[in-house]
Amino acid sequence: MRSPLLNKLSLTCGRRLPVSWLVLCFTSVLVLIAVFGSSFPKSFDYVTVTPVPEIYSNYRRLKEQAAVDYFQLRTVSSGAGRQGELGLCGKERENYVPCYNVTANVLLGFKDGEEFDRHCEVSSQGKFCLVRPPKDYKIPLRWPAGRDVIWTGNVKITKDQFLSSGSITKRMMLLEENQIAFHSQDGLIFDGVKDYSRQIAEMMGLGSDSEFFQAGVRTVLDIGCGFGSFGAHLVSLKLMALCVAAYEATGSQVQIALERGLPAMIGDFISRQLPYPSLSFDMVHCAQCGIVWDKKEGMFLVEFDRLLKPGGFFVITSPISKPPGHATSLKKRSMLTPLAQFTEKICWSLIAQQDETFIWQKTADAHCYSSLKKNEVPLCKEGYDAPYYQTLMPCIIGASSKRWIPIQNKSSSPDLSSVELEVHGVSPEDFFEDLQVWKLALKNYWSLLTPLIFSDHPKRPGDEDPLPPFNMVRNVMDMNAHYGGLNAAFLEEMKSVWVMNVVPVRARNTLPLILDRGLPGVYHDWCEPFPTYP
């Protein structure tokens, strides 16, 4: 069948054209185009292209990636490509935490506390099933009510365990059969959490704990945080307090802190470093955390020194009040002797002691390290930093890092200055652009989530968010936090949400920048389970 084009040419020319002639014409046209095109190489130079703002191109890439991710997630959730459906785990796995199988660790020969450490290689061949909530699980109360009242059915520790532990009953009161209330006035120790926090501030030479921020303290690592009462109070002061406690097979500090809506994760450093970079926290707090300080030649203190920023504070409290000469006092003195001896070797100074609370301050003088005896506590190699669950190191990092900036010299602004960004190798333009992208993304997220998270309150699109306790979202995990822009957007929009900023170990290492912004964050390998409770 002849094409319409050939028919038209035949009508125009009066007779049928040979195919070879048409091919010759077509080839000639292509040659002419090539000749004239090469004769005017700059003919298109005058065509100007309007640059697309980078923020929109980045946002477009995010949307395109989101579409790909959505398709993959939909495929997985629909069961495509799987040989069989995932079943529900049994009741024994309601509080299951992978990588923390104490029984298996003991059988493999781990001892001296290392059986409680994280060993993902042991549980890598575990059964795949969907962990279900406990039978009596209830949706947590809205913030901030949920910070002080939790449902007993949501945590592993039972009412009987609460009542049988004498010191713990001082820190909480059972309101009903199925609720536990935490009262800050009956808090941690002494006359309560508020008094305890004020005492620490006064020991640091401050007028009150509201001046922590002005003293350079914005981020606090709370080791063995109990039920999170101290952290909850610090959060009310606009500080970032991250609770870290060891895995517990029966009843967990981390689980209860998370149930209260507070930043927390499982962490132990019996044999490995915590998954944070060096120079990350302004204060490390340790109240009755049960650490034997003279074990492993002081490497536990070396780990705290690694985590503390220059000029940062180490606060330790043993909440026992006994008359002088009592056996407990002798035990306390024997516990603190290795502390006092070792802290001098790593350039720490004991700045205050009151009752059972001691405060050391890490040096802000870089020259102090040059006077250390190398045969006692050596300096780590220049450029050293702990990437991810490395073995505890018997060396201190010294002052060679570009991030070695005393906390007292940092600006009180929540945003990093251009000089501080330069330390992290980030341009102010890139940093600002990231925030703008995530502010726009958060606006879209919040609009989509509004019917769900404010479902118990009549809210129409465009209205202001109702005040808590209507917001059902208390925390967010950002699985690839980059600069922490989503977290910053939440803060700028004044949403009552805290974010766990996760920096994947295979991504660019931006965790130091996130922590320097005063935001919680952690390294993680997403080929492994995250160290937390269901």
From TrEMBL:
Top EC class, one word: transferase
GO terms under biological process: methylation
Subcellular location: Endomembrane system; Membrane
Residues in coiled coil: none
UniProt-listed Enzyme Commission number(s): 2.1.1.-
Cellular component aspect of the GO annotation: cytoplasm; endomembrane system; membrane
Keyword line: Glycoprotein, Membrane, Methyltransferase, Signal-anchor, Transferase, Transmembrane, Transmembrane helix
Keyword check for DNA repair: no
Short name of any one Pfam family annotated for the protein: Methyltransf_29
Matches recorded under InterPro entries: Put_SAM_MeTrfase, SAM-dependent_MTases_sf
Gene Ontology MF annotations: methyltransferase activity
Membrane topology: Single-pass membrane protein; Single-pass type II membrane protein
Xref: CDD domains: AdoMet_MTases
Main location: membrane
Record carries keyword Transmembrane helix: yes
Assigned protein family: Belongs to the methyltransferase superfamily.
Name of the protein described by the UniProt record: Methyltransferase
Organism for this UniProt entry: Gossypium mustelinum (Cotton)
Lineage: Eukaryota, Viridiplantae, Streptophyta, Embryophyta, Tracheophyta
